[in-house]
Amino acid sequence: MIPASVNEHFRKYRSRSWAGCYLFALVDGIQYGQHTGRQLEPLDDAAASLFAGTRDIALAHAGPWLVDPQKAGDRIADLGELELARPGVIWLITSEKLERQAARLRPHLNIETPERRSAMLRFWDPRVIHALNGIYLGQDRRALFRTVHEWQYLHNGQRHTINEHASAY
Length: 169
What we know:
The chain contains six helices and eight strands, in the order αβαββααβαββαββ. The protein has 169 residues and is of the alpha+beta class.
């Protein structure tokens, strides 16, 4: 379920940092549904929609989900397989538990355009997060990236990492 390279990196990160860190998957609900023919659903301490509690709750099935793959077990499809097949998974290393981490990501779901309109920021898509890492250069614009310790994702077949010490490039 967790790609071997991600799992190995997480174990190394955990051993040199601290024991109280977690590995979650940020999953695109549309990609998951198209790949599996099923929708993600809330699971206590294992899967939470980032749209829960927002005005976009009706889009929960299609939007971003935070998943603890160890707790979800066989109740969800193989996320490593999904990651290889579609741009639908980003791995996160964090010190927060699932619901707290979801709460930290929710404020970044929408941005204000220069025309003062609200727009959804699809940061759960590896193609988008890769582009954002290249254009979000100022300290204030990097707030999204600081919501977790590390982001890992596949882009054009290569694994990339975003953290405070390394960018995705």
